[in-house]
Amino acid sequence: MGSRIRQHVNPMSMGHLDTGARPLDLPRGRPVEVDLGCGEGEFLFRYSAHHPDVFLVGVEIRRALVDRIQARILTDGIDDRLFAVYANLLVDLPILFANRRVDAIFMQFPDPWFKKRHHKRRMFSDKLADHILGALKKNGSFFFQSDVFEPALDAMAILESRDDVTNLAGAWSFAKNSPLDTPTRRQRYCEEKGLPIWRLWYKKTNG
Question: Is residue 20 domain-resident?
Answer without folding.
Answer: no
